[in-house]
Design brief:
Elements (H helix, E strand, L loop, with lengths): L32 H31 L3 H7 L1 H5 L14 H16 L3 E4 L4 E3 L2 H11 L31
Antiparallel strand pairs: 1-2
Length: 167
């Protein structure tokens, strides 16, 4: 392996083995000078940008239209300060509307009311309706009157109940 005789090391890796005496840091570390220059120019460019933006905003404010000139230019906007938009409008307080809707729905579920007074239909509380359904049972078809009602499909029919061929 060839080495440079003026460096004083047998191999390039030998210079990393120990820190030179009297030194408090590794001499092969990156230098701080480029980092300091970069940070300096970042601060300088940030200052230039902020000063430029402040000047641009100042020009825009000075060139802006005054309120009196805007009222003369748009007379309808000065007549009514806040005209209402056309219907349908957004809800102002959707939480209140939702609460009122849910309260009304809950009242209908928990109270007795007439559904249709002429027909004699009454709305009953849902808990009462479930209790009555358990007591009375659900209506079912009469299998004696309808022979198809009692037919169960065969295991291999995939749920179809058609006529079977004779073998």
């Amino acid at each position: 392996m060839a080495h440079h005789p003026s460096a004083g090391h047998a191999s390039p890796d030998d210079e990393y083995l120990e820190t030179p005496p009297g030194s408090t840091y590794e001499h092969t570390d990156a230098t701080t000078r480029p980092l300091v220059h970069f940070l300096f120019w970042c601060v300088v460019s940030a200052l230039v940008i902020h000063v430029g933006l402040a000047g641009a905003y100042g020009l825009l404010v000075r060139a802006g239209v005054s309120r009196e000139a805007a009222e003369r230019r748009y007379p309808l906007s000065a007549a009514q300060p806040h005209p209402l938009p056309p219907a349908p409008r957004l809800q102002q307080f959707p939480g209140n509307d939702r609460y009122a809707f849910q309260s009304e729905e809950q009242r209908l579920l928990d109270s007795y009311t007439w559904e249709n007074k002429e027909a004699g239909t009454v709305r009953i509380p849902i808990a009462e309706a479930m209790r009555l359904t358990v007591e009375r049972g659900l209506p079912s078809r009469d299998t004696a009157a309808d022979p198809q009602a009692g037919m169960m499909p065969a295991d291999s029919s995939s749920g179809r109940t058609g006529e079977r061929r004779r073998q």
